[in-house]
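Minutes, structural biology subgroup

Action item carried over from last meeting: produce the structure token record for GNAT family N-acetyltransferase (Arthrobacter mobilis). EB confirmed the sequence was re-checked against the source entry. Recorded below for completeness.
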Amino acid sequence: MPSIERSAVIELRPVEPADLDKFFEYQQDPEANQMAAFSARNPADRGVFDHYWQSLLNDKSVIVRTVTADGEVVGNLVVFRVDGVPELNYWTAKSHWGHGITSAAVELFLREFTERPIRARVVKDNLGSIKILEKAGFRRIGQVQDFANARAAVVTEEILELT
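Output recorded by EB:
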């Protein structure tokens, strides 16, 4: 699959049923799971995947967007509340890393979603994601340790916040 250039048109839209097949496909990449850390214990289990996504899509308090680049589904953005504070999560297909797509998608989303503060959590060694969030104005406010299924280990997460 050819990579999309930085000049690609990045858009956010509601999730369509066919997008879930792409999300599931992207979830199969071992390196992407390692970087995300908090993916399913068995990313190949479609039943768990479908249950998780249906719970997100059926929860009116959760915001979910498909990220497209030149019309191609390349990832997603999800916001849910943790202790009443919105928390941003995203997943971009590994084949599209390093092209500015996630940065553009986060910027677009933050123009649409103006509630502040908004937080994000990123495994400490996921420097690409930390860079994306800091570029968008997030600042590190703390750290937590938690068990990450994809790594089968306790990891340190940076907590970032945009005010």
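Discussion: Residues 46-58 form the longest helix (13 residues).
Next step: EB to file the record with the rest of the batch.
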